[in-house]
Design goal:
Layout: H1 6-11, H2 15-19, H3 25-36, E1 41-44, H4 52-57, E2 62-66, H5 69-76, E3 86-88, E4 100-105, H6 118-129, E5 130-141, E6 150-157, E7 162-169, E8 175-184, E9 188-197, H7 201-210, E10 213-219, E11 233-240
Parallel strand pairs: 1-2, 1-4, 2-3, 4-5
Antiparallel strand pairs: 5-11, 6-7, 7-8, 8-9, 10-11
């Protein structure tokens, strides 16, 4: 079981290089801005600001939470990063105070909560922090039926470095643990551990409903690409009942 900050602490030095274009930033900014309708946005796992900084530049009031001090330090070192309030801590335990029009959990962030009950606790906290009618926007991968029990993938090879991704799926649960293994003459062997739940969208719907959310829509991307059986990721919007987002007052 990884500590909540373990992934971020291990990956912070290379995150922007390895994951800067991992998902549709422009589409995310457009969709989240529309959902917020002038209200404040909270990003779970704000990291180095891959999404938060473009949202902030677009005029959205952004707040964040992240378990990794190293990731947040890199955010704060970037232009505009110091202007974004960030709570450093486990977002399955505590969230920033206040009411938000949108809470966004991009690129598998919710599924990184692998400790027993952590995802369920997070959904309850998010529900409590959302204003009436507020939206929870989730981006996550869709597990395949043929997911292997273990494997090794070559991520990068050149004369100076080899990066492998090694994983193993727990046969008794939906947890997958792994490590990004870097091998280089300069750095030797370095392990960057990660963990994720192979939780499909329908199973996530069940947990969200238990926390008081209603499913509003599901797409295959941030630009409302149609979701079907061939989709390898989903962007799902859940609503907290009890009002309209347009009524949310900016913080």
């Amino acid at each position: 079981m990884l500590e909540p900050q373990a992934y971020g602490e291990a990956i912070a030095d290379v995150y922007d290089d390895w994951y800067g274009d991992v998902s549709d930033v422009a589409g995310t900014v457009t969709t989240v801005t529309a959902l917020a309708a002038g209200g404040a946005v909270l990003e779970l796992g704000i990291g180095t600001g891959r999404l938060a900084l473009p949202l902030h530049a677009a005029g959205v009031e952004v707040h964040g939470v992240d378990a990794s001090p190293a990731m947040v330090e890199r955010l704060r070192a970037k232009p505009g990063g110091a202007d974004i309030p960030v709570l450093v801590g486990d977002f399955s335990v505590a969230l920033p105070e206040g009411r938000f029009a949108v809470v966004v959990a991009a690129f598998n962030t919710l599924l990184n909560l692998t400790a027993p009950g952590a995802l369920e606790r997070c959904l309850t906290l998010v529900h409590d922090r959302l204003a009436p009618g507020g939206a929870l926007a989730v981006e996550a991968f869709v597990p395949g039926d043929d997911t292997a029990s273990s494997g090794v993938e070559v991520r990068h090879v050149d004369a100076d470095e080899v990066v492998l991704s090694v994983f193993r799926r727990d046969p008794t649960s939906d947890a997958v643990t792994g490590s990004l293994v870097s091998l280089s003459p300069a750095g030797g062997v370095r392990l960057r551990p990660w963990a994720i739940r192979a939780l499909g969208p329908e199973a996530l719907d069940v947990l969200a409903a238990r926390a008081g959310f209603t499913l509003e829509r599901r797409d295959a991307g941030w630009r409302h690409e149609p979701f079907d059986d061939a989709a390898d990721r989903h962007v799902t919007v859940y609503r907290r009942d009890g009002g309209t987002v347009g009524a949310v007052i900016r913080r």
